[in-house]
Fold this sequence. Notes:
Shape: globular
Distance between the termini: 7 Å
Helix content: 40-55%
Radius of gyration: 15 Å
Order of helices and strands: EHEEHEEHEHEHEHEHEH
Largest sheet: 8 strands, parallel, barrel
Amino acid sequence: MAFHGQTILPAVRRMKDLERLLPLPYEYLVLLDTHIGQVKPVVDLMRANGKKALLHVDLIEGLKNDEYAAEFLCQFVKPAGLISTRASVVERTKKNGLLAIQRLFLLDTNALTKGYKLLERTAPDFIEVLPGVLPHMIAEVRETTGIPIFAGGLIRSAADVERAIEAGAEAVTTSNAALWREFAGRKT
């Protein structure tokens, strides 16, 4: 089951990438690597082009990734959702009624155990599992938490995308423009 019909959630790092992406038929886009002065104009540009922004709070330069930043983004910038590793950001995003996406890095067993405890507390709408090239871990996290999964990180091919989806991911986040184009026409 894809996220709003999207197998791919394109992740934008540069304005040139966004310009190339706007004509493609994606409704939701992830905004990475920006700074506080750009975030509202970029989200407004996305909105003007019929796109919904998912902002990665931890990667906005000049903005601390805490609950106050989340409140500011939710109230002033008004994206579709926020992505963060921080529990306070996820919790504040949920309180504001936006999509709350908790990033979970699968570094080792200890990180996974701590991650499960954090996810119990934050109860995000989605979990972004990184790296996204571990199908058995995508399946385990989905089964253990019952929370829908996005897979991201180290996704390099259509086969990587398909394995992640087959393992239970709702969608795959990627900054790989070739994959954006390849999956743009696919309906799910």
